[in-house]
């Protein structure tokens, strides 16, 4: 993609969100009505969205309203990385939708761009532990990412060194031509060796070494390996003003064998020689360094996602991180899910790495919705991991309104929103514990509903429809992920309601549940356990279970469905085990007959 911002249109790339350009107006559909396909009518309306992606949780904006305090605190901790020091580990807490991940990603993006600006090696890696939830997967993913980075850096360095060799060849050819032009009449040019830069040293220097070894015998022995200036970055940077080869190709980051040794005297090289301001004395040293880098690249072995012992994966990850001098920030989102699934071994290994690393330094940022997850950590892990803690409070309605207004200016075309849309979205989300993600979902869904109905403006009714749709989507997802036994209990409640039974009690649910278990050959739980499952469904908001007193007959639970019946039944029947139930009516009839 071109570096010229003028070439980036609204749909090409906006703040890291890529897309593709579309031009429906200029499309030639012809006069034939048969050309009108399924999507043509849908595309004929005027679009409401300018860039829908800014309303998605994955989008990281340039500005995060009402989170400047937390962002500034993160920045003051991580600025140590730009000084080449190890930043303190950070734990970030807060409920869902309070801007934790967005703020952390924003700060990490700024950290990486600033590190490139000042040529400070700093890498940030993000892992979602809800997806990558075992020690093996976390270490394997990190190892492969750093192997990929190392290979890319080696390729860059090899390309730089090969370009330097080209410059040396060009210089030698130039020197040969000058030597031929300067040869006295009658003198045979073949009697001189013009391909070696040392042939053109002033008479005060040692006599040229015609075998191309790069100096007298003593110098050749002492400089047999690639010797670099002390502090490879500083040495090459100071020389950058006098050599375009070093400044343009970044030779200060090449490294090489013997880089800690004292530099040899390179005064024998002419001032305009390509190697004069580099860490290398001869062409052979450059070639040796290229071979060494290529050997390093060959030695890297990608970690498979399964099959290796965990200690081997850790060893590969450790070596990959420590290959270069750099500060590494590892961001673990939903860190409590990793601890819940795999214990604290991963955090223990990561938090103790710095005591063994020679070149790199590692810092950890943990993000969690659970304020108490550290209570279950080993005290040693807890002390090293929670060096700094940052809490993200929920947003209130006014703050959510500011966030939505800020995003809507980029997301929608002009005048696409009526005045009451943003306040209503903010009010609905504020009731859900100040969840900005919920507010953004509401606004985006309202826009989609308006666009589908080919409305020109999003109004309050679209927001209310979006609220119902999101709630239904949540129910569908919760029901779909229920265990089979809970699905059977819920199916029993649905069957009773479909057959006109009101104020359902636990015994009635248990009778139908037993017959459903027999139908699909599932284990039958005790009535007490079924009562517990009903309580769990009540907690999820799928059913409403109220304990009522029957006087002398004791107390019982009266159960009713809290979700749409038909949609919930359809989700249950989509389960392969429950779909085998052919005719459920006899179960209810049999229950009443008994």
Automatic annotation (TrEMBL):
The keyword ATP-binding is assigned to this record: yes
Listed Low complexity bias regions: 234-249
Domain of life: Archaea
Role according to the record: Involved in regulation of DNA replication.
Matches recorded under InterPro entries: AAA+_ATPase, Cdc6_C, Cdc6_lid, ORC1/CDC6, Orc1/Cdc6_arc, P-loop_NTPase, WH-like_DNA-bd_sf, WH_DNA-bd_sf
A Gene Ontology BP annotation from the UniProt entry: DNA replication
Pfam families, per the entry: Cdc6_lid (PF22703), WHD_Cdc6 (PF09079)
NCBIfam families the record matches: orc1/cdc6 family replication initiation protein
UniProt KW keywords: ATP-binding, DNA replication, Nucleotide-binding
Name assigned to this protein: ORC1-type DNA replication protein
Organism, scientific name: Natrinema gari JCM 14663
Domain spans labelled Cdc6 C-terminal: 490-572
Amino-acid positions noted as binding ATP in the UniProt annotation, renumbered to this chain: 98-102, 395, 407
Biased composition (Acidic residues): 1-15, 25-34
Location of the region described as Disordered in the Swiss-Prot/TrEMBL record: 1-41, 176-275
Gene3D superfamilies per record: 1.10.8.60, P-loop containing nucleotide triphosphate hydrolases, Winged helix-like DNA-binding domain superfamily/Winged helix DNA-binding domain
Domain AAA+ ATPase: 86-396
Similarity comment: Belongs to the CDC6/cdc18 family.
């Amino acid at each position: 993609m071109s570096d010229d911002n003028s070439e980036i249109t609204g749909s090409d790339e906006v703040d890291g969100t890529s897309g593709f350009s579309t031009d429906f107006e200029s499309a030639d559909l012809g006069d034939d009505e048969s050309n009108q396909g399924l999507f043509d009518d849908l595309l004929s309306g005027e679009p409401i969205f300018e860039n829908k992606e800014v309303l998605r949780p994955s989008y990281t904006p340039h500005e995060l309203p009402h989170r400047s305090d937390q962002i500034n605190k993160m920045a003051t901790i991580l600025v140590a990385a730009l000084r080449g020091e190890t930043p303190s580990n950070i734990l970030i807490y807060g409920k869902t939708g309070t801007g934790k991940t967005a703020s952390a990603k924003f700060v990490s993006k700024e950290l990486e761009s600033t590190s490139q600006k000042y040529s400070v090696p700093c890498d940030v890696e993000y892992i979602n532990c809800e997806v990558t939830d075992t020690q093996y997967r976390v270490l394997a993913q990190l190892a492969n990412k750093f192997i990929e980075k190392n290979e890319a850096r080696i390729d860059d360095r090899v390309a730089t060194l090969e370009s330097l060799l080209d410059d040396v060849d060009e210089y030698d050819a130039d020197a040969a031509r000058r030597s031929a032009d300067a040869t006295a009449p009658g003198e045979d040019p073949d009697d001189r060796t013009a391909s070696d830069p040392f042939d053109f040293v002033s008479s005060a220097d040692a006599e040229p070494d015609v075998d191309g070894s790069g100096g007298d015998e003593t110098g050749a022995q002492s400089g047999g390996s690639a010797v670099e200036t002390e502090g490879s970055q500083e040495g090459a940077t100071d020389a950058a003003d006098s050599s375009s080869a070093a400044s343009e190709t970044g030779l200060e980051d090449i490294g090489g064998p013997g880089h800690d040794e004292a530099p040899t005297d390179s005064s024998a090289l002419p001032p305009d020689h390509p190697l004069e301001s580099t860490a290398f004395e001869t062409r052979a040293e450059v070639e040796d360094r290229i071979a060494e880098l290529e050997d390093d690249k060959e030695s890297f072995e990608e970690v498979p996602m399964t099959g290796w012992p965990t200690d081997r994966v850790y060893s590969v990850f450790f070596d990959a991180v420590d290959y270069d001098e750099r500060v590494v920030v590892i961001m673990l989102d939903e860190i409590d899910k990793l601890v819940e699934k795999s214990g604290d071994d991963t955090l223990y290994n990561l938090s103790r790495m710095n005591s063994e690393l020679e070149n790199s330094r590692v810092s950890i940022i943990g993000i969690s919705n659970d304020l108490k997850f550290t209570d279950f950590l080993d005290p040693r892990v807890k002390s090293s991991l929670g060096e700094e803690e940052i809490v993200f409070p929920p947003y209130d309605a006014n703050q959510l309104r500011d966030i939505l207004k800020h995003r809507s200016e980029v997301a929608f075309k002009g005048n696409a929103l009526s005045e009451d849309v943003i306040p209503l979205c903010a009010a609905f989300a504020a009731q859900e514990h100040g969840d900005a993600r919920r507010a953004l979902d509401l606004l985006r869904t309202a826009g989609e509903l308006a666009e589908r109905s080919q409305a020109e403006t999003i109004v309050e009714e679209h927001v209310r429809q979006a609220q119902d749709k999101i709630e239904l989507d949540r129910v569908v997802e919760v029901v779909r992920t229920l265990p089979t036994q809970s699905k059977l209990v819920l199916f029993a409640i649905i069957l009773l309601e479909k057959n006109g039974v009101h104020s359902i009690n636990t015994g009635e649910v248990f009778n139908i549940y037993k017959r459903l278990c027999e139908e699909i050959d599932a284990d039958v739980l005790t009535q007490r356990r079924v009562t517990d499952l009903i309580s769990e469904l009540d907690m999820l908001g799928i059913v409403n279970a109220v304990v009522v007193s029957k006087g002398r007959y004791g107390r019982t639970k009266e159960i009713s469905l809290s979700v749409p019946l038909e949609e919930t039944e359809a989700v249950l029947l989509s389960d392969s085990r429950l779909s085998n139930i052919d005719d459920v009516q006899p179960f209810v009839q049999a229950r009443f007959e008994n």
